[in-house]
Amino acid sequence: LAELPAECGSLQSEEEEEEAAAEEPGPSAAAAAEQRREERLRRFRELHMKRYEACKLNSQEVAEEDKRLKLPPNWEAKKARLEWELQVQEKKKECAARGEDYERVKLLEISAEDAERWERKKKKKNPDLGFSDYAAAQLRQYQRLTRQIKPDLEQYERLKEQYGEALYPTSDSLLHGTHVPSKDGVDRMVADLEKQIEKREKYSRRRPYNDDADIDYINERNAKFNQKAERFYGKYTAEIKQNLERGTAV
């Protein structure tokens, strides 16, 4: 009987505390507001750090660009060349340490595609150093014309099916009078000949000396100058020149 009033008093105090918490703003709302504030401050600090990093990177890029602009224009090529030479020296040292030939090792590392590409580059270089003799000039002309020939593979296959082994002549084959050129082939030949004639007409050659022409110059350079002057101003000075020759000039 003595313990019952104590239990009732404890229950009453708990109810009073709950009612007081409902009437006054509790710590949960304050904690939520504080959490939102901390979140906003954290995002602000992140944005501030991103802005700082962007400014720092921009400054570094400006400094690097200024360095690149001050370098010579072919610095990148020189740098790549120097790096390649250093790599070659390192490989030579490694091959020498292993007792191997560097040139042989280098050739083993080159693929067939790279070798063909380098050969094509070598062939593109023009070995013609100028006129040596008429035989060499004729050979160059023949090579130039043959490079322009584009074979018709479809016609070749048709002829191969039609004639078989007879398409490939031997020492016993009679070729004279057996080949009849097509109309397209004749047209191509005529067009190429006309193109050659047109190109020859543009060639310039040294004009022969005319013994009957008046000598009004002191050297070849002065003769060229007089020809140009006559070409542009001859129609204006023709009468004055005639008067000077007749001695009737005023």
TrEMBL record:
The keyword Oxidoreductase does not apply. The keyword Nucleus applies. InterPro entries: mRNA_splic_SYF2. One of its GO terms (cellular component) is Prp19 complex. Residues 1-12, 23-33 have a biased composition (Low complexity). It holds the Pfam family SYF2. Residues 13-22 have a biased composition (Acidic residues). Residues 1-37 are annotated as: Disordered. Keywords: mRNA processing, mRNA splicing, Nucleus, Spliceosome. It is found in: Nucleus. Its main location: nucleus. GO terms for biological process: mRNA splicing, via spliceosome. May be part of a spliceosome complex. Belongs to the SYF2 family. Involved in pre-mRNA splicing as component of the spliceosome. This is Pre-mRNA-splicing factor SYF2.
